[in-house]
Amino acid sequence: MGKKALIASFGLNEDFLRGKTQEEIVPVIVDKIESVRGYEPDLIVLPEAFLKIGGDRLNPRWRGITNDMLGELKRLARELSCYIAAPLYEPYPGSDTLRYNTTFLLDRAGEAVGRYRKVHTVYEESTVSMVVPGCDYPVFDTDFGRIGFQTCFDIGWRDGWKALADKGAKLVVWTAAYDGGNLLNTYAAHNMYYVVSSVRTDHAQIIDLTGRAIAEGARWNGLAMARVDLETQLYHIDRQYQKIDVIRKALGSKVTIRAYSEENVFTVESNDPAWPIERIEREFGLMNYKDYHAEAARLQEEWRAKYPSLPGEG
After folding, report:
1. Using CA atoms, how far apart are residues 91 and 175, in angstroms rounded to an integer?
2. How far apart are CA 114 and CA 106, in angstroms?
3. What's the pTM?
């Protein structure tokens, strides 16, 4: 079984922070993180460029404040022994004006072990805020699974979401200034990975690999928190739904099985280290959803080669 990870993702409503300076927002963020200390989270996620709420480039000390904030987040990552996704502006090398919109990944030791630089910047973001767009979609291996990042306007492009799936991401963190809506659910379901959103509004979410929200924030409490297992696997019911009762009878509470009739799929999550998903698939003859589609695609190509088909008419 994979390591089950407790994720805490914050919605940070800008309406409640109007009038605060960047300096004043630093302790607000620290207090937010302290509020979940007792839950022992594995990953804490914060919204896109959250210090921007306090004045952005109007504050000539933004670089120093950013460094102070990053230092506090590193300290908290060490103390809580958790990963933190920290979206902050990052100075562009050799320039006093240019910068990246970066999400830093801090590990359990408080080290910055990775960074994602927003690829798809808004027009005003580059022309006014002087943000240089990034150029790639890295993935990062944590002790609970492989993760990737997207930021705000990236939601409008499919390339990054697919690239992360192709690189084996099991969870994608999306940080933003707004809620995002059903595209997040669509990306989760289409790519069959978890999506975690953290926003500068109310509605942070944790969405599972079927596209369903399993935790959501609200106006008066923006925190979305849930425990996930990134090794959870998705299966089509074809030639397999008969095995659900067989697995449940054999393994009982060692597994969690959820079935969805509208999509004709079910998921299997292991609750026992002696029964990882690979063993369950092997011993009960399960084929995951991606392999099932690959099998069908191979057969389709074989049939097209044997029996050439005419194009459709219209």
Report:
1. 19
2. 7
3. 0.95
